[in-house]
Amino acid sequence: MTKDEIIIYKNEEGLPAIEVAFGNDTVWLTQQQMQQLFNKTKQNISLHIKNIFNENELNKSLTVKKSLTVQKEGNRSVNREIEFYSLDVIISVGYRVKSVEGTKFRIWANQILKDYLIKGYALNHKKLQEQTQQLIELKQAIKLVATVQNNHLLNNDELKDTFKILTDYVYALDVLDRYDHQQLENEVSNHKGDFKIDYDSALEAIDDLRVKFGGSKLFGNEKDQSFKSSLYTIYQTFDGEELYPSMEEKAANLLYFVVKNHSFSDGNKRIAAFLFVWFLDKNKMLYREDGTKRIADNALVALTLLIAESDPKEKEMMVKVVVNLINYKN
């Protein structure tokens, strides 16, 4: 028998103290523990158990489990196979010995089982809700891809990489037959980069990028203070804890904020995409161990356009997409 959990039983006087095994949706006691519970002799308990099965009151194969336990016998440790009896057997023995303590135990055990069932339902219900939310997010992402495609913002290669984003995002999702066995969270590594992006270094990088795109004065020209605010936000703390503690979360939110805040007169998406890969590279996250890029060029274009076209209400979903795309599993 596999004892999933041990629960201590005591009555209101604090006695007897019995280690009750809980598993397979019931509670289990050995014959020796029933002797202690009902305050009866070994022969008495053994006789009642024998009669329960001889009279076909209960099915032995369903109510008795065996477990290999280690017992101390003098100075020796001996392995012995011990029989455990389910709650049905315990209750039947309790009725036969007319034990008040047996009634107390039955009430206690039924409450334990009830609590377990309620807790189990709550956990399963929570998982179902999370999976439903994942499916909603996936549908949102697919709908967004269709919108971007219909607006002719993606070419065929970029469209292929966009759908690769979605498959990376949900990890082995089989939409028709089953849902992903994992919960889509911001699964991140413990990678700690040394580079912290700040306002001055970011402006220098944007100046270099401006030269590449013809040196227009509008390119990278700040319209307000929102760019500085974006950089501040990814390192923001609350009650001493970072809002975005991992490098993946910082990078994903950096890309999102710079795209959506429209901080510059021209070049917002290009600047956002550049700072995103620059940040990853500086923190040694842009390339995998085999030297390939963690995010392909076309995928970066598609991802940036998806963020630009997305509804602000979809921020959490878009950030999750980015995090799952660049994390250690990808």
From TrEMBL:
**Which PANTHER family does the entry link to?**
CYTOPLASMIC PROTEIN, CYTOPLASMIC PROTEIN-RELATED
Which top-level group of life is the source organism from? Bacteria
| Pfam families, alphabetized | Fic, Virulence_RhuM
User: Where does the record place the Fido domain?
Assistant: 182-324
Q: What is this protein called?
A: RhuM family protein
* Organism whose genome encodes this protein: Pedobacter jeongneungensis
